């Protein structure tokens, strides 16, 4: 039983209590400033607990961005560089493998790999990054390349997306991250990233990945020029694909960070906006098992609070994150396992270490860098 009092929320509350799907209009009402955040949060928490009980997940992970040189000039991005820019870099195979070694020594179960689209690097370079890491460290799960990179590989090779994904699977790809989705609606997408994969390409790449047995994540970049209508439209498009494939594991709402970007006149979204977006996402995405509060981007306090507003996952300990730190994130570079577990327990949740595919990770009591995979977590 929940205690929403606002009359305008009554029909939404009834739908949520009866596990019924919310409409575009419901989503817009949930985003309305006049709709009390506390009540939206309470509804989202009901769904969160129905799906994931009291569990809050995290993993031990690291990031790898092999290059920041990028042909695209997305207005929201502070990470990209031109070839001749003094910030521009490309990692060598030795540097990439050293990152793999470091990850394994630190007990990481996952490496999250994304980067710029470097016009002087061929398709084989991108596939080989996955191959050399997988050959050297076969237990490290490689969550690599977004739908935007895959679309770039299509352009480079003229191969169908299915063949590209199969090449990557053969090289050792474990899953795909959710980046590059931004906002699907063309009114916004054409203004913030007009050249890169459009909504149908991004969605079709994930559809194909799911059909090949690859699980993927999905994201939404909010707090820039988009309006609530564009956000709800975005969530509904993700929900429709999930109805079709059931291949998304986690949704991550990404708050825009303006520093050093072409949109630096826009203010960063408030904590209230972050929590509302978390809660609305949980309520609209009734078929996606997990909602992640990415602490790097939200800040630790808001991410912890989000565990009561629909989120059931904090991402991981994270090492070597660049995309948000280049755009002004003031969060630390890494959280210790003790810190992340404490954040979760203090929020009244049960911390559970998971691997990328949401199976429990069982650590060796004498040597925390050694682990094995346990059973899959259950989600209603
Ligand atoms: O697609 C880029 C966003 C994304 C900025 O799958 C920015 O588990 C805010 O997708 N301000 C990449 N956002 C990060 C990403 C991600 C992160 C954590 C976990 C997972 C996962 C995926 O970051 C980009 C873009 O939407 N981004 N620049 C910026 N200035």
Notes on the protein architecture:
This protein has helices at 10-17, 24-31, 37-52, 93-105, 123-136, 147-157, 161-171, 186-192, 199-211, 228-245, 271-284, 295-298, 300-306, 323-326, 337-346; strands spanning 55-59, 61-64, 110-113, 141-144, 216-222, 248-255, 290-291, 313-316, 350-353, 359-363, 371-376. By secondary structure, it is an alpha/beta fold. The protein has a single domain (55-376), classed as Alpha-Beta Barrel (TIM Barrel). It has a 3-stranded parallel beta sheet with strand order 8-1-9, with helices on one face. Helix 5 links the parallel strand 3 and strand 4 (141-144). Helix 2 (24-31) packs across helix 10 and helix 3 crosses helix 11. The radius of gyration is 20 Å and the shape is globular. The two termini are 18 Å apart. The structure holds ligand V47. Ligand V47 is lined by residues 76-78, 177-180, 182, 217, 219, 221, 252, 254, 256-257, 261, 294, 315, 323, 327.
Radius of gyration (CA) equals 20 Å
Shape annotation: globular
Share in β-strands: 5-15%
Uncertain spans, ≥5 residues at pLDDT below 50?
Answer: none
* Assigned CATH superfamily: Aldolase class I
Output the structural class: alpha/beta
Q: Which architecture does the CATH hierarchy give at level 2? A: Alpha-Beta Barrel
Give me the count of strands.
11
Secondary-structure element pattern, one letter each = HHHEEHEHEHHHHEHEHEHHEHHEEE
C-alpha termini separation? 18 Å
* Fraction of helical residues: 40-55%
Mind summarizing the main beta sheet? 3 strands, parallel
State the domain count: 1
User: Total number of helical segments?
Assistant: 15
Which ions, cofactors or small ligands are bound in this entry? ligand V47
Indicate the CATH topology.
TIM Barrel
């Amino acid at each position: 039983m929940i205690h929403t009092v606002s009359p305008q929320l009554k029909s939404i509350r009834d739908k949520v209590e009866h596990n019924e799907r919310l409409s575009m209009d419901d989503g817009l009402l949930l985003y309305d400033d006049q709709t009390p955040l506390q009540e939206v949060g309470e509804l989202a928490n009901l769904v969160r607990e129905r799906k994931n009980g009291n569990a809050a997940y995290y993993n031990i992970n690291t990031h790898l961005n092999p290059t920041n040189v990028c042909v695209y000039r997305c207005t929201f991005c502070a990470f990209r560089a031109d070839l001749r820019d003094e910030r521009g870099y490309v990692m060598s195979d030795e540097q990439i493998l050293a990152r793999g070694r470091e990850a394994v020594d630190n007990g990481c179960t996952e490496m999250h790999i994304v980067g710029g689209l470097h016009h002087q690097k061929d398709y084989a370079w991108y596939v080989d990054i996955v191959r050399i890491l997988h050959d050297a460290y076969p237990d490290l799960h490689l969550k690599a390349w977004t739908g935007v990179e895959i679309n770039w590989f299509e352009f480079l090779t003229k191969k169908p997306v299915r063949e590209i994904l199969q090449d990557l699977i053969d090289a050792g790809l474990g899953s795909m991250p959710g980046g590059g989705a931004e906002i699907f609606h063309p009114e916004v997408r054409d203004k913030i990233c007009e050249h890169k994969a459009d909504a149908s390409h991004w969605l079709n790449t994930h559809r194909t990945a799911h059909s090949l047995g690859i699980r993927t994540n999905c994201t939404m970049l909010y707090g820039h020029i988009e309006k609530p209508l564009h956000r709800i439209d975005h969530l509904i498009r993700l929900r429709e694909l999930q109805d079709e494939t059931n291949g998304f594991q986690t949704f991550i709402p990404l708050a825009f960070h303006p520093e050093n970007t072409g949109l630096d006149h826009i203010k960063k979204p408030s904590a209230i906006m972050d929590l509302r977006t978390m809660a609305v996402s949980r309520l609209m995405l009734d078929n996606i098992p997990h909602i992640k509060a990415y602490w790097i981007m939200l800040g630790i306090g808001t991410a912890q609070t989000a565990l009561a507003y629909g989120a059931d996952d904090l991402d991981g300990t994270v090492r070597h994150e660049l995309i948000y730190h280049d755009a002004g994130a003031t969060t630390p570079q890494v959280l210790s396992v003790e810190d992340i577990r404490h954040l979760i327990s203090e929020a009244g949740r049960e911390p559970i270490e998971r691997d990328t595919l949401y199976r429990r990770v069982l650590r060796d009591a004498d040597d925390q860098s050694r682990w094995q995979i346990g059973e899959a977590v259950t989600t209603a």
